[in-house]
Specification:
Layout (H helix, E strand, L loop, with lengths): L1 H39 L4 H15 L7 E4 L9 E9 L15 E9 L5
Helix pairs in contact: 1-2
Length: 117
């Protein structure tokens, strides 16, 4: 039993740091996508695919588990467009004897459209 606790104590800080890096990566990808969508006036399928591809290629997320919801209707200037990404969390404890928390996390953003006809 002591060995289980020692293993968890050894790896928990590293795994928690990795989890925080994944959260930051999702937030950065979402912000960069929002900048592009602001100019377009909506989140185009190309922007959404690019956000997913970045998470898959650079951060090793599973594409089938990434859920992106975004404003896809054309929005005129000075109105808000919104988007959110829900992605799976990595585990924090090696052994599943502690509460791991939620299995996914969600980041949201809201930005003014800059689209002019």
């Amino acid at each position: 039993m002591t060995l289980f606790i020692v293993i968890n104590i050894m790896f928990a800080p590293i795994l928690a740091y990795l989890d925080s890096l994944h959260r930051e990566a999702v937030e950065v990808v979402l912000t960069e996508g929002a900048k592009k969508a602001s100019i377009e006036g909506r989140f185009t399928p190309a922007i959404i695919d690019e956000m997913k591809d970045t998470l898959v290629d650079r951060y090793n997320f599973d594409e089938s588990k990434i859920k992106v919801t975004a404003t896809q209707s054309l929005t005129p200037r000075n109105q808000y467009i919104e988007a959110s990404i829900e992605a799976p969390r990595s585990f924090i404890f090696i052994l599943d004897i502690f509460n791991q928390g939620p299995s996914t996390f969600k980041k949201e953003t809201k930005i003014l459209s800059e689209y002019i006809n």
